[in-house]
Amino acid sequence: MTLAPVVAGVRRVEHHMGTVISLHAHDAPDTAVERFFDEIRALEALMSRFDDDSEVLRIERGELTFDDASPQVREVIGRCEDLRSSTGGAFDHRPIIDGERYLDPNGFAKGWIVEQALVHLQLAGVSSYFVNAGGDVVVGAPPPGRSSWRVGIAHPEEPTAVLATIRLDRSAIATSGCYERGEHIRRTRTRETDDLASVSVIGPELATADALATAVFAGGRPRPSWWRCDSSYGIIASTASGRVLYTDDLTGLVQVGTAS
Fold it and tell me: Whole-model pTM?
């Protein structure tokens, strides 16, 4: 979970995909902002697990084949399959729960939907924006007068504290952990051996960062053996003992314990 900064310009907040989506943008025309949220609404309808008519649930029930699904749904499920393979199953969009297999691409789809919606802002010439999707953040160029965005990662154990801040420019950060929602991620290790309190992944794509954060946290190791990602992705992890660890590529971008 991340803390959004206060910025000037257009600010709009709506509820989609079971969470709050906030958009801060500079010099964004109203039509582009409308199209941003319209795109989220349309893509959510295709992939929601809360809409019986969504393509995701129709595929799960056997009413729609993968080949007959929309190009958007095929792309998301295909990317999920790739991530499942590259993470050794730590990211799993087809989990078995109580003996039944589910189709749940949300760990990738939420970020992907936001990124598709951002195309409407970019086509309108908007380069400086900040989107917070339930604590996962994607930013464009920094606002006028700043060299970067500063994003705070909320402390997993202390609601009013900040674990660390990171400087971002045209990139994304996604965080997985217990936080308010409790144990919502299926773990591949037992709680007794799990020393992670939260995991944030930083990189160029919000969807991939979100999926990787989920996978790393589920595995319980700050840097799992399958981590062979593009060097443009980095990890910030906090442990139950209070340590903050991050990959070498983030040195100079991370400041532990403050959002100033």
Answer: 0.90
